[in-house]
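debug: dumping io for the single-chain case to check the tokenizer round-trip. Nothing else runs in this session.
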Amino acid sequence: MPKVRIVFDRVRVEEKMLEQKAIEMGHDTKMIDAKITKINTESKKNNFDFGDVVIERCVSYFRGLHLTACLEFLDVPVINRFEVANNCGNKMLTSLLLKKHKVPTPKTYFSFSSVAALETLDEEGYPLVIKPVIGSWGRGVMALKDRETADAIVEVRELSDGPLDRIYYLQEMVNRPPRDIRAITVGDQLIAAMYRTSTGSFKTNIALGAEPITCEITKELEDICISASKAVGGGILGIDVMEDKKHGLVVHEVNNTVEFKGLAKVAKRNIPKEIIQYSVTSAIR
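debug: decoded output
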């Protein structure tokens, strides 16, 4: 049986579920703490016990991304691949790839200074949604409803002046029900989907208290999710979809190390089992 390794930097419910299921399926399974893993340019694959496949599950995007690069340097099969992690971890790259591959997605504006961002807002009109190009759990996502709010956000960004603060990602406010859809794709299959209902704001993240409700997998939802997965490079992904009242389903984000504890409560298929099976199969192709 192939050896499965799960790389983590914080053990969440999802990592425990994956470890338990891999053991149940008969795999030699080990958890590897990314925080104490050391690799250098002279390292060889046989210096480590990375098994036959590594499932990268770091909470820290940058830690997971750079460790993935190191693992690929050692010719260790990693799920997801570096290219996919990089494409999904940066919202601007994701949006560009979705549009390039003709996946329906909200109109999104990119500016590289506060002056240009404010000009975009004045030209296109309010509201627009501002998001950090790198981030998760809805942090830093805000609706800019007027110039006063926009000025306040710009002021905060200019004070912090981090490298990512200089990239302004503005997205149209989609006219939708107070919910969105989180779907999980594994390879070329859509295996589960749920509605995440709003808890008072326009955000629908489970991490912020949104409730998971079963969502029927229609042909339309399946097609758009598989197209989104292919656009960013495939693998094990969380696809976030909104129901635009005018344009139908639109994909607004694709997530790399997808959280699935909420969806597992309402999914018909066993998500950890699907992830393990896909990872092992991909590694031995």
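debug: round-trip ok. The chain has a mean pLDDT of 93.
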